[in-house]
Write a structure and sequence with these properties.
265 residues; mainly alpha; 3 domains; 3-stranded antiparallel beta sheet; 57% helix
């Protein structure tokens, strides 16, 4: 037999035959009024209903009030989440503009300004070999300028500068998607990394295959999709990537917190 509260809920839902189903998971009442073969549902906070009930169990408060309040919260949350999505789109567009600006800065710092091999004070062969390929035509001091101006570590500044040059000079499709806000900076970085060993005349083909769906994918999904595309379009890229990894093998030590350190191999 339905309780007084359930009867009132049934009346609110407009069930003609008075048949309802009530489930109470974790303090919520999910009330379903049965209308022939179909049904309608209402999510009600049981604590709110009890607060408005009289001692004999008859509901004395309004059920619409908590439902309307919940609907308002849902709408407000959706509006704020839409705003966050627009903020992320704007951040991506700014990242694209930053990449163009940094690539332009790199062109203003040619490697011809550096001391050449054999001259006193010139960079060592090991130092030159360790530099990113995208920065071979850029002064060795350019990354230091970026680090000082943007308050970055030397390695972070060098990586940001190299990625920016690669995007502008080698991956126009990826840069265009970033500037449009269709992909994030994290996605653009992933594509830059994965396309690095791909032959120059095949990069555009990989971009054309993966970019149309990139805006609907996570970074991990995009990476997997890109790997498959590279395997189809430039099978030798995986071998070149392996060779690069072997040449770059090293062990590094970084100071950690509380007297600890981190070893990376």
């Amino acid at each position: 037999m339905a309780t007084a509260v359930e009867t009132a809920l049934c009346d609110r839902l407009g069930s003609p035959d008075g048949r309802i189903e009530v489930r109470r998971p974790r303090g919520l009442w999910i009330v379903e009024a049965i209308h022939g073969q179909g049904g309608s549902g209402l999510l009600v906070d049981a604590r709110t209903v009890h607060a408005g009930a009289s001692d004999d169990g008859a509901p004395g408060g309004s059920i619409e009030a908590p439902v309307e309040a919940r609907a308002q919260l849902l709408d407000e949350g959706a509006r704020l989440l839409d705003a966050v999505a627009e903020f992320e789109r704007g951040l991506a567009q700014l990242a694209g503009a930053r990449a163009r600006a940094l690539a332009g800065f790199a062109r203003c710092r040619p490697a011809s300004w550096d001391r050449q091999p054999g001259e006193q004070g010139a960079a060592s062969a090991a130092s030159r070999a360790a530099r990113a390929a995208a920065l071979t035509a850029v002064s060795e001091w350019a990354a230091d300028e970026v680090a000082a101006r943007l308050r970055l570590s030397g390695s972070s500044a060098s990586g940001l500068l190299a990625e920016s040059v690669e995007l502008v000079e080698q991956l126009p499709g990826t840069l265009a998607a970033l500037e449009a806000g269709d992909i994030s900076w994290a996605q653009a970085r992933a594509l830059t990394e994965l396309l690095r060993p791909v032959a120059a005349d095949k990069k555009a083909a990989v971009e054309a295959r993966v970019l149309p769906r990139a805006g609907r994918q996570t970074v991990a999904q995009l990476r997997e999709c890109t790997r498959r595309a590279i395997a189809r379009i430039d099978a030798d890229a995986a071998l070149r990537r392996l060779e690069t990894a072997i040449r770059g093998r090293k062990v590094t030590r970084q100071a950690g917190e509380d007297g600890m350190a981190v070893l990376t191999a």
